[in-house]
Amino acid sequence: MRIKESAENYLETILMLKNKNGFVRSIDIANELGFTKASVSVAMKTFRSEEYITVDDGGNISLTDKGMKIAEKMYERHKLIARALMALGVSEETAYEDSCKIEHDISSESFEKIKEYLEKHGK
Questions:
Q1: Is 62 helix (H, G, I), strand (E, B) or coil?
Q2: Which 8-state DSSP code applies to residue 53?
Q3: Which of 26, 31, 35, 81 has the fewest CB atoms in 10 Å of its CB?
Q4: Which of 3, 2, 32, 1 shows the shortest CA–CA distance to 15?
């Protein structure tokens, strides 16, 4: 099933915040993405019902295996595409901004070829 870019961004953000802070709450997501708490709350309710996340009694958000699979895929794409762009001479800031846009639309075939190229050439 293909999920929307906004959902991919939310799930990737949850993973990144968990790695950075050790925990994730809705307010953390809102602050990171610049969204309202209400918007994040609606999204989290949808993600819970679709079993991408769980939320404990303290409001801590965790990715399910289903959510983690998508988050890790997007995070890998984000980092690798940025690395490829920097290898071409793009500044780090621009490379990460552009990779965030590209990661959602690039085909699996193209992504794998970029990955192979970077591994082969030690970039």
A1: strand
A2: E
A3: 31
A4: 32
Cβ pair 91, 74 in contact under 8 A: no
Q: Is 83 found in the same domain as 49?
A: no
Say which amino acid occupies 27: I
Question: Distance between CA atoms of 6 and 65, rounded to whole angstroms?
Answer: 19
Which letter, b or e, does each residue of 1-31 get, where b requires 16 or more Cβ atoms within 10 Å of its Cβ? eeeeeebbbbbbbbbbbbeeeeebbbebbbe
The CATH number of residue 9's host domain is 1.10.10.10
- Residue 67 makes CB contacts below 8 A (sequence gap 6+) with 11, 14, 47, 51, 52, 53
Handedness of CA 87, 111, 50, 40 (dihedral sign): positive
pTM to 2 decimal places: 0.86
Q: Where are any strands of DSSP class E within the chain?
A: 53-55, 61-63
Provide the domain limits for residue 103: 71-120
Nearest Cα to Cα of residue 67 among 6, 8, 20, 5: 8
Overall number of domains in the chain: 2
